[in-house]
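#data-curation
PF: Archiving a pair of folding outputs for the training set. Convention for this channel: one message per protein, sequence first, structure tokens after, nothing in between. First:
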Amino acid sequence: MSKKSPQLRFEGFTDDWEQRKLGDVISISSEKNGNQFSRADVLSVSREAGVVNQIEYQGRSFAGASIANYRVVHKGDLIYTKSPLKGAPNGIFKTSEAEGIVSPLYAVYQSREANAAFVGWLLSNDNFATHYLYPLVNKGSKNTLLVSDADAISGHLSFPNIEEQAKIVSFFTQLDNLIALHQRKLDLLKEQKKGYLQKMFPKNGEKVPELRFAGFADDWEQRKLGDMVEFFSGLTYSPDNVIKQPGTLVLRSSNVQNGEIVNADNVYVDNEVVNSDNVQVGDIAVVVRNGSRSLIGKHAAIKYPMKDTVIGAFMTGVRSDTPSFTNALLDTQQFETEIAKNLGATINQITTGNFKKMIFNFPEIDERLRIGDFFNQLDNTIALHQRKLDLLKEQKKGFLQKMFV
């Protein structure tokens, strides 16, 4: 029998990993719910592509499924979703510590002679799942994993001894807990920002916000956005103008993520074809046309000098004497309401003319500066936590590649 070992291991483990057939380590469960569990015992799979997540009680039913046909889940069982996931076709998941039942849409597997959580990690490993599991699962119309498929992927499954399995599971469990902690912190900051946006900008029909800095008491005035900021257009270019770096970077919707400008699917064009303004610190890039309605209005401020960088044709640039306030204003529910009123009937876009006509409340400049500084600091804190979270996820991805065969 062929044996292997991973690139990265814990101290004290030197034995080769053994290749095993899938059917030797898991078996599919046919156990259905009788009178043992009620709808309050339904387990809901909290899932993310390529990640083993916990199963949590939701106390809800699944439409069209008789509770008698629900699959029984015991502690340590694996749950496989037959329906496609966002970002990946399928996934293997570890159950929670509790017992319960899941919809017939899920297949339940029991572990044999292996750490159940380790099997879940192994089968959910991106490299293994992408190259072996998903192609097998999605072959034809079955869209599920059968133990009878074991021979097709058995040559790609290797296992260490049970002690090393437990060590690996403990490591990734702690890493997942750390990721979850940072995610909760990030979610809390975003919720706090949402609350501040609601209280520090006037509600519809109001002239002052609920929460203000000391020393400010004047009413806010309704103004057209075009009277308060400048707009500039993005660059129109053809595929023939696209070149490899160096050149002029064209910011598109993919470069705007979580309220920040990021490197993602960057496009560069020949400097000779650029006839639009280079972005400046404080400019706000706003998505005004996109195939996806949800992306309209997505925006981010330019926070550092970006040489040879312009926005694309489906973006609009906003330039303001109080850029941080304007960026916060575009985060408010009022902006979402204005988008809905001005969105094209047949094309997902906001024209520059309609953008300029949007009505908002504005305080005098000193208060705008204070509010802008507050939200700029909050945004920087959120961005810092987002980077920490992204780094942890990247580190986890690297460990998954190096700690499994």
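PF: Second:
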Amino acid sequence: MKQSFALLNIKCSGCANTLKKGLKEEFGEVEVDLSVVPRLITLEIEDENIDNLKTKVKSMGYPFASQELGFIDEAATKAKSFVSCAIGKLDV
């Protein structure tokens, strides 16, 4: 079923490109809405795969907005998202 999730640290189309490419193989096509804050991703996903998605996007630096992060996790995801964003801008 099609579901949307609010993610943190998505700033621009570079971040969106990274998410789309990084999730495509495992989760299929992903839409990223840059017009709202927090940013939303929308994709076809079954409930039993949401934990896998949550783990994958956090590893890329874009945790679910609903996730509780400690100081170190928050800093680490921001750093990862900065690198992911740069890669997404270069990989257009």
